[in-house]
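Workshop exercise sheet. Pairs work together: one partner reads the sequence aloud, the other fills in the structure field after running the prediction. Swap roles for the next sheet.
Pair: D.N. / O.F.
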Amino acid sequence: MAVEVQAIDTTGNYRAERNAYLRGREFKGNSTAGLNWENVSKRILPQLIYKGHVLRQEPLCNKGMFFICPKPVYERVQQRLGNGLRPYPLQPGTLTFRWYDLGPEMPAGQRRPLESFGQFTTTIDQVALAFTAPADLPPADVYALAIEAELEALRR
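Structure field:
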């Protein structure tokens, strides 16, 4: 089997917060940093689909590919793909999601455990189809309404 381990990257930066901290000052302002959830659609899912198709051809990869990620990343993947993926047993061409999160808080000086929260196996084909035919599209005319709202704001 093949294993892909993924976290989530950030967008923006913590420069202002860091500078305030280093100077011993309170940070006043709005952070530009945040989690880059768009990476799920732009990079993570296409990468999994591509690698899954490549690995399907590998005779030694007879249990498919495993995607190990934090629980919030898995939840975002599920949100993007919808809930229509069917479960499959381990086999070539499958993608198994395993998601983890931090366990309960521990006393100072002790490490928080990492806990498994679930596993789900489906096929690369189902992931690819769900990715290219999303069920979570915004309503029709969403672009036109946004453009009209901006134009109206400019007229004021």
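Discussion prompt: DSSP finds five helices and six strands in the chain. What would you look at next?
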